[in-house]
Amino acid sequence: MPVFTRLRHQPETADAVTEGTSPEQETAARVTLRSRFAAWRERHPAFVRGAGWTLTALAAVLVFLALVLPNKESALHADRFVRIPVEAILGAAAALTLPRRPRLTVAALSGAALGAMTILNLLDMGFWEYLGRRFNLVLDWELLPDAQSYVKDSMGATVATLATVGAFVLVLLLLTVMALAMVRLSSVLARNKQAATRGTLATAVVWVLCSALGLQIAGSPVAADRAAGAVVSQARLVHTTLRDEAEFQKVAKIDAFGNTPPGQLVPDLRGKDMIFTFIESYGRSAIEDPVEAPGVDATLDARTKALAKAGFHAKSGWLTSATYGGSSWLGHSTTMSGLWIDNQQRYRTLMASDHMSLTEAFKKSGAWDTVGIMPGVQKSWPESKFYGLDSYRNAFQMGYKGPKFSWSTMPDQYALQQFQNLEHGKKRTKPLMSLVILTSSHQPWAPIPKMVPWNKLGNGTIFNAVHAAGNKPSDIIASSPKSQAEYGKSVQYSVTALTEWLERYGTKDTVLVFLGDHQPIPRVSGNHASRDVPVSIVAKDPKVLDRISAWNWTDGLRPAHNAPVWKMSAFRDKFLTAYGSTKHPKKS
Questions:
Q1: Where is this region: Disordered (predicted)?
Q2: Cβ neighbours of 215 (radius 10 Å)
């Protein structure tokens, strides 16, 4: 048993408060420390006053910024910070009327709440930048690990780790510092009650007058209630999200083709090798934006001519995607289900339902083998059941030994060649229906693969030199002009790889349907871009395109500006109907 000896002498220093001292000695040490600190303050009054005013001013600035901070980066203008927040007036009134203990408690809690609101504003900024929408407090937490994975794939593990640690530190600092700032401001107001009361009343009068007169600076009202409005808006979003979850469960159980007999599903495509392909971030901006369009349009026109020379013809139109900037799986599931899947809860509900996807219709018919080519999938993928796939190939099942191109695990050309080698080129007793997801046009669009001779693809190591010569993500990701230029090149690459594959391996019975999943991020497409994506159907058999003549789509791979625009959720039913499927509704 250890022996503890009592200190015989307790020095009057900070080191005196140590393990093993008696309560009396600890109390004496604390008194001594307070006395020394008080003496130091008396010897340096100017410094103490200056430091106090500096801390108070800093606290006031932090609280003010938190109260008026917008939730969009595009709204970060000087006029947004020349405002009078009503929440500050109400907070000052509370600090002047509450007793000390409740005042400090309210100040600390409201400060932490301001810190939390600031965190949500920052999350909103990120989501507006990359997904074209605000952060959903109920659904979007599970997307944060995906964001970390994206940073890791694009910028490296070190940057991802530093960003993660930095985010946690920032959250703790905001919660703590904002709470301390509010406590300090409330204490200053309480110590100067008379002057603070006059100032609060005067500010309240000015706020009321500015509000009544509708005074604005550069379009922003001087009398602001940004923080209160943000709380109300978040509450409404939470309520809407929870209500939508219950309503969508009922919607997902209703299916116009849910009870259609197998023999009445897509009878006009029997014997055709069907390929449904999504091209990552292939949006309307690629075809119509002044920066990206010249190169992409030239590629689409050249590939239309090359396909025609090989006997293939195409018709193209527009679909309005359910997502924007990312969350590609929402676009995939919306197209294939015929339901509007614009959030994670709807996606989860759909995947757990027996609602029939367009690709599953081919499986249910019994007339096709079904397969998925998923180079972006790097873990188990239970969604394959919803899509009606007999099997699928993920990123680790295609023999690729070359370099990753940022987030994209392999170049589209390689994935398509392996699709041919492993699935499409095999002899079968049935035609094949394939779902192919191409990833080379995924942000940050650096480095971008280049086309190589098809017969030299091998195991993909030929792309080592291409990767080494390409741009670094850090050189592209922060620049809008560079991102736009490289985005356009990536779309040109993906379209070229897909159509060259069709030229090389397509037959008279091949039917290719390809489309984008969503528009690229606002840094590339702009803050006011549409949600439209191009969609094309390509075939040799003229009867296939004759079936959709009533759609009034544009001939070729490039849809006209005034070509029909449908919601993405309309495509499944229109496609099934055009190719002879008979409706037999299933209702809840």
A1: 1-25
A2: 13
Does 130 lie in the same domain as 184?
yes
pLDDT of residue 499: 97
Domain co-membership, 320 together with 394: yes
- CA–CA separation, 94 vs 526, rounded Å? 44
pLDDT value at 378 more than 70: yes
- What 3-state class would DSSP assign to 304? helix
Average pLDDT, integer, range 227-242:
84
Torsion of CA 421, 423, 424, 430, to 10 degrees: 150
Q: Name, in order, each residue with C-beta under 8 angstroms of 66's C-beta and a sequence gap of 6 or more.
A: 114, 115, 117, 118, 178, 227
489 touches 448 (CB < 8 A): yes
pLDDT in tens, 100-133: 888 889 889 999 999 999 998 888 888 887 777 8
Count Cα neighbours of 6 within 13 Å in the Cβ-side half-sphere. Answer: 5
- Within a domain: residue 322? yes
Check residues 95 and 516 and name the one with the higher pLDDT.
Answer: 516
Question: Is residue 2 included in any domain, yes or no?
Answer: no
The pLDDT score that the predictor gives to residue 40 is 56
Tokens 């899509």 sit on residue? 387
pLDDT above 90 covers a percentage of the chain that reads 47
Cα separation, 128 vs 135, in Å, equals 8
